[in-house]
Write a structure and sequence with these properties.
By secondary structure, the chain is mainly alpha-helical. Helix content is 73%, strand content 0%. The chain contains twelve helices and no strands. Helix 1 crosses helix 9, helix 2 crosses helix 10 and helix 8 packs antiparallel against helix 9. The radius of gyration is 19 Å and the shape is globular.
C-alpha cells in the first residue's frame, strides 16, 4: 500500500523538495507505527522515575533519543554524578556518528541550518528505511526533502506518543507488554539494517558482548557492547573494502 503526504502549494518551496517530502513520507510511513509503543513506554518510564510532565516532555524534545533517555533514567533516579549521566548518554548515542558519516554525502550542497536541523532529527528508523535512496538521489533538494519528510513525521509521532504515555501512565495496566512491543518494533528496524555483512557482524558482536557482560554495574556491559559492535563493524567494512580493491 502506498501512502502520500498532501502538501499544500507553497510558492517558495522548490518543486523537487516537495517531491522528496512526499516520496520520503510515503516510503517511511508503514514503519512509523512501531514508534508508538516505544514512545508510550518511554513516557511511562520517565513519569515513573519521578519526572513531572513538563520535565519529561522537555527531556523528550531536547534529547530526542529513546536509548539515551531510558539508559540514563536509572542513573538520574539513583543520584549519579552529572558527568556519568552525560558520558552514558554520549556512549549510548555513539551509533549516530556512524549514521552521520554514512549519510554525509547526501547533504553535499545543503545549507548549514538545514544540516543542523537534519542532525537533530537523525533517527535509527529513517536511516534504516531511507539511507540507500538518499545516497543514490542526484538532486540535493530532492534528497533533503526525502530526508526531512520522514524525519519530521518521525519526530512528531515520537513526541505525541511520549506525551500520551506521560499522561496515561496511571491508567495503563501494569501487565501491558509495552516494553516487549517496543523491542519488537526495534527488531523490525534491525532486520532492515543488517542486510550487509559489516552491519550483521556489528549487531551480533554487540549482542553477544551485552549478554556476556550484563552483570556489570552501571550498565557498563551495554557500553562495552556498543564499543565492541562499532569496532567489529568498522573492521569488517575495512576488510570488505580491502578485499574488493585486491580483486580489482
Amino acid at each position: 500500500m502506498k501512502f502520500e503526504l498532501a502538501i499544500p502549494h507553497l510558492p517558495r518551496m522548490n518543486e523537487r523538495f516537495r517531491q522528496g517530502l512526499k516520496e520520503g513520507f510515503g516510503h517511511y510511513f508503514p514503519f512509523s507505527p512501531g514508534l508508538v509503543p516505544w514512545g508510550l513506554a518511554t513516557g511511562i518510564a520517565m513519569l515513573g522515575a519521578g519526572f513531572s510532565p513538563i520535565e519529561a516532555m522537555g527531556m523528550s524534545v531536547i534529547v530526542y533519543g529513546a536509548t539515551a533517555q531510558l539508559g540514563t533514567l536509572p542513573l538520574i533516579v539513583s543520584g549519579a554524578p552529572s558527568w556519568l549521566i552525560v558520558v552514558t548518554a554520549l556512549v549510548l548515542n555513539l551509533r549516530f556518528l556512524i549514521f552521520s558519516a554514512t549519510l554525509a554525502p547526501a547533504f553535499k550542497g545543503v545549507g548549514r541550518w538545514q544540516r543542523w536541523l537534519s542532525g537533530y532529527l537523525l533517527s535509527d528508523g529513517v536511516v534504516a528505511a531511507c539511507a540507500s535512496r538518499l545516497l543514490t538521489e542526484d538532486n540535493p533538494q530532492r534528497r533533503l526533502g526525502y530526508y526531512l519528510g520522514p524525519s519530521l513525521w518521525n519526530w512528531g509521532v515520537w513526541q505525541v506518543s511520549t506525551l500520551i504515555g506521560i499522561f496515561a501512565a496511571n491508567a495503563v495496566p501494569q501487565n501491558w507488554p509495552l516494553a516487549f512491543m517496543a523491542t519488537i518494533a526495534l527488531l523490525a528496524l534491525l532486520i532492515s539494517m543488517v542486510r550487509q555483512k559489516p552491519m550483521l557482524l556489528a549487531a551480533l558482536t554487540g549482542g553477544v558482548v551485552a549478554i556476556a557482560l550484563r552483570g556489570l554495574p552501571l550498565r557498563m556491559g551495554i557500553f562495552a557492547a556498543i564499543l565492541a559492535g562499532m569496532a567489529a563493524g568498522v573492521l569488517a567494512e575495512r576488510w570488505q573494502t580491502q578485499k574488493v580493491d585486491d580483486d580489482k
